[in-house]
Amino acid sequence: MNLEFIRDGPALVIEGEQRLLVVADLHFGIEADLAAHGLHFKSRSTERLERLMKTIDHADPDALILLGDIKHSIPSLTRQEYYEMPGILETLRSRVPLIVFPGNHDIGIERFVRDDELKPRDGALIDGVGYLHGHMYPAPHLYGNLIVIGHHHPLISLKDEVGCALQAPAYIRAGLDTETREAQDPGSPVGSTRVLFMPAFNELAGYDIFQMVKHPFSPLSRGMNVNAAEIILTDGTYIGPLNSLEPDEDD
Amino acid sequence: MKTIERLDPQVRTCIRKRGFTALSDAQKQAIPLILDGNNIVLIAPTGTGKTESAMFPVFNGLLPLPAGGGFKAIYITPLRSLNRDILSRMQWWCAELGLTVGVRHGDTPMGERRKQALSPPDLLITTPETFQALFMGKRLRQHLAHVKYVIIDEIHELAGSKRGAQFAVGLERLHVYAGDFQRIGLSATVGNPEDIAGYLCGSRPYTIVQVPVAKQLELAVQYVGDDFRHQTAVLSKLLKREGSTLVFVNTRVTAEALGHALFAHGDVEVHHGSLSREVRIDAEERFKKGEIRTLICTSSMELGIDIGRVDHVIQFGSPREVARLVQRVGRAGHQLNTISRGTVLATGFDDLLESLVIAKKARANEIERVVPHRHAADVLANQVAAIAVEYGEIERSRIREICERTSLFPDCGTLLEDVCRQMEDHRLIRIDGSRIVTTARARRYLAGNLSMIHDERKVPIFDIVSRRTVGTLDESFVVGWVHTGVVFITKGQLWRVLEIADGRLTVEPANKAIGELPSWEGEQIPVPFSVAREAGAIRRTRDVAAYRPEQDGLAFAEAFLREMDKNRSLVPTDELITLENTEDGVVCNVCAGHKANEALGRVLSILISARYGTTVGLELDAYRMLLRLPSSVRAADVRDFLLSLDPAHMPGVLRLALKRTALFKWKLVQIAKKFGAIDPDADYEKISIQRLLEYFDGTVVQQEAYRELLSEYMDIDTAAAIVSLIREGKIRVELGPHSLIGAGGLLSSRDQIPPPTADGAVLATLKRRLNQDDVLLGCMNCRDWKSRTVVSRVDEHPQCPKCGARLIAALKPYEEEQYALMKKQRKNAEERVIEQRLMRNANIVLSSGKKAVIALSARGVGPENASRILATLTEGDAFYREILRAERTFVQTHRYWA
């Protein structure tokens, strides 16, 4: 298995028997929700879809895995989504087969997705890699493998000698605490589950990793082994262990 | 005919009744001109009866008009407190003359407003913002049709601001209803009266009446040293000698500190913008009644609120601008034809020279220019929304006509198109062919954005250790810059952000600055170029005496310069820039004023930051800037950058430099709010603000942020002019040891210029990680010595203390078991493979030393990869980039993920 990091997604190509392009958290329709919170922007659905199509052209995959939160509005569909979603999915589908793992924002997505495209909410194994959106516990048979998830929109802050911090979307690769794993799947191979948290494809979403560690908001972010978590930038640059980055008085 | 005789007998009776025996110069000159129907700007010091100069002839004009029907004269002041003051003065006159008067501003109760809508007063006193609100009501708009006079008090305060730009458009919107009304501007002394008149009248004819202020000023500069206790002792003595005194200070913090120190006097009060209205009014009243003798105040008391008799004005610390000194001292002797006496207390070398220069310029009547905002896009957006609400729908060409009648939006067709398109994006208006149409949002927007003053939410800073709120920060600032882990400075202390949630910042005290947060709270008055330059000239000519300082000041300045000479320090002047190495970076001594230094400093920062791939910290004042640099960049390097600058490229470089700074983000958020993109109470936690800012790339919002920053916050033209002078050899650049002058000054504005790519931050992170990595050194010669340490502690050429060999393998801690195998006499096939690997490892360390140890500690880098990296023979950052590349490859392989 090989991984390719596509910086301008951010997206990931995971190549085993098949060449799979993975993107997480598209959040089409986010603009309506932002407007309700006082931030008024023109819908960028078209530009976002174009960027995704370009990513597909660049990666030329056998299939596209949409790792959840394809749309944004909950608990129900907005008018905008009702009209936009079929077109968006059809554009993608006509280019490449789709594999869809529904996320917490994807209520009602069944309406737009074909049965053979839809995977369980708690994930599935493809080519020996587990995939799910990441808002719930993975299905037991995913443990012991690499599990790729979205949902967390991680952003990392970096400093240099003089000190300015710089924020960028990033991946987190982490193991799980023994307790978490045991509780879910007694007797699974020790230490072999690794979780890869993907950054959001949506250009407006982002959440500071240190915040996420401090206030975990999902089973896997609660269960990850923070001490062994490692950070990778969207172009594949290995940044190193998370705990070497934490704000430190004496550095 | 005498001026007074041209007035209606009724008005003349009142004048006599009110106890006026003679008209002032200002009144004699202005009244006939106004009676003749001219638009005029009256420029005169405070206390020369400016208000009466305007109002006597206006009363004269109002008397013959039929009662009721609408507003006939509108009197605008920039402050509510001035409104109240003017109202109490006008009530008497209006009552005597049978005219009606009303005041309307933010605090006016609903009942009073309704009354005004039903029966409008003849004379309405209001603020520019409430004036905007008059256009929203149908009935009020009808009343506006009757306006014959608009009087704008303290117009110099408005003309240079965005509030003023908005008001200028407002006047032309009024013109649509009222036709040609007479415009009367009352101004303090400014350097460019024509621009003020143009601001008031557009292209209509006007007359300027000027009453010079300088001959009425009596100014002294007194040196009081830099010890606060001594300063207050001197001040205390002065206060006892004088009668009623206003003490002006430059910041609220100083006001509080002085108020505290002088508390024992018992007759001292403090007056500044952070105090509640009641407290301020109470202080004003008590001063007016003579219950207190001293009022310590900030610019809050500059404008002409009547506070009775002031015998003396003290300016604590340099006033920084000539206009400010004149305005402040003008508060003294508040009666016609008396001399205004003022004393500046200077607190240090820069402060003293600066005060002397400013006092001299004030005596010579050399006041700064007021520069109006031209083509401010956010003002245009605000007014387009206002006009859309006013008319429901309207042709864009009509909006253009309205705006182009002002002097501030000439030829604004293209800008208007861009602004309208942007507003449509944010659903503030709809564009329907050549018309624009209002939306439901537009009215809501307008209710929250009547003012161009950025009415910032203040975010409280909560210290988790002491469990108390330690201060506040501007919201736009927090949004644009602050995030978890960031360290910033406020209230003279360092804080680290732990959390941003529920509308507050949770912080803990920090020990070390790793990135200081500027705090633009608008209190710092920039020192203009002309002042800083002349202060530099004094340093060169050493002719302090020509500026007439008192004895202490002269002695201090001369001793200071002698000390510089004794230390063999170079004295930076208007013709000499000196660069000094310090522990923190490089100090550049440039006498160019805040704004030019800001521009020059940022240009240098971005170039250095791009060349070395590192962040550059910048702190500056009017005479110097400190570039916080990595220890490898020295003064000589900065000189090379300075000498190689091309003035023509500087604006472009500066734009680039600004884009990723805190200042730019702060400004962009403010302007986005005025475009209706962001509501005043928006919930920023919903969004990654870094990403949000990319949204505005190439838009008119971004363009306006640049325009405002480059014109208001910095002065790129002057910075470029200085660089030209350097190229022509008229300003020399020299290196020197760290000097008294270089170490002086209060560094005020702080910002960080990040490198154009993430490279610097990534490399720094990599270096830090590798240095902290655990490494296991094992001797491959005697195979009997191993030591676990961290990379940073490894010697340049590690050596075995047991056998003295330099054949040392650098292993990862988890490879300890493998090293243990090396002592076995008989090894199996697998163990022999391991032995070969460890020998290769040790050989690399033997030939490349610590560099090999660093490479080998990288993730997924074994002997093969390490030799490849070392074979590139790269050094420094390039070497680390090779390591990054190797790690990036590793992360893509099965080995990392399986």
Q: Portion of residues in helices of chain A? A: 10-25%
Envelope shape of chain B: elongated
Quick one: biggest sheet of chain B?
7 strands, parallel
Strand-pairing-aware structural class of chain A? alpha/beta
> In what order do the strands lie side by side in the largest sheet of chain B?
3-4-2-5-6-1-7
CATH homolog superfamily of the largest domain in chain B: P-loop containing nucleotide triphosphate hydrolases
The succession of helices and strands of chain A, N to C, reads EEEHHEHEEEEEEHEEHHEE
What do the pLDDT scores of chain A average to? 87
What is the class of the largest domain in chain B in the CATH system? Alpha Beta
Q: Radius of gyration of chain A in whole Å, from Cα?
A: 18 Å
- The helix count of chain B comes to 37
Instruction: State the name of the first-level CATH class of chain A.
Output: Alpha Beta
Tell me which oligomeric state these chains represent.
heterodimer
Round the mean pLDDT of chain B to the nearest integer and report it: 87
Shape of chain A: globular
What is the CATH architecture annotation of the largest domain in chain B? 3-Layer(aba) Sandwich
The portion of residues forming beta strands of chain A comes to 15-25%
Distance between the termini of chain B: 103 Å
